[in-house]
């Protein structure tokens, strides 16, 4: 599980590092949405069944400009972990490893699909030089 966790962190770091670039934030949000289940399996493998109540993510905390980002992260992460309820830590760990390996093999194709969705280009788009950061 340690190796898969490091692999996942490396893949995610590439998106996090690039999210400040023009048009890259959309790729980051696509990645985050696509990998919520992986996060849920990780939490289940480490902690077990979800142990936090579902919060009212519509409330805005001091310093926040919008409830939307908090809702996206908090609500969807809560549901991803809650879907794993009942899995043993061993089962969740195995699923986590399988999902990270699947992500590693699919990330190149996912990037292409996400770029097409973002650009609304029905013909597809070429990967640019910056996309080499995502390839191993």
Automatic annotation (TrEMBL):
GO BP annotation list: fatty acid metabolic process
Keyword rRNA-binding on entry: no
Keywords: Lipid-binding
PROSITE patterns per the UniProt record, alphabetical: ACB_2
GO molecular function: fatty-acyl-CoA binding
Annotated ACB domain residues: 1-109
Entries under InterPro entries matching the protein: Acyl-CoA-binding_protein, Acyl-CoA-binding_sf, FERM/acyl-CoA-bd_prot_sf
Keyword Transcription: no
Name of the protein: CRE-ACBP-7 protein
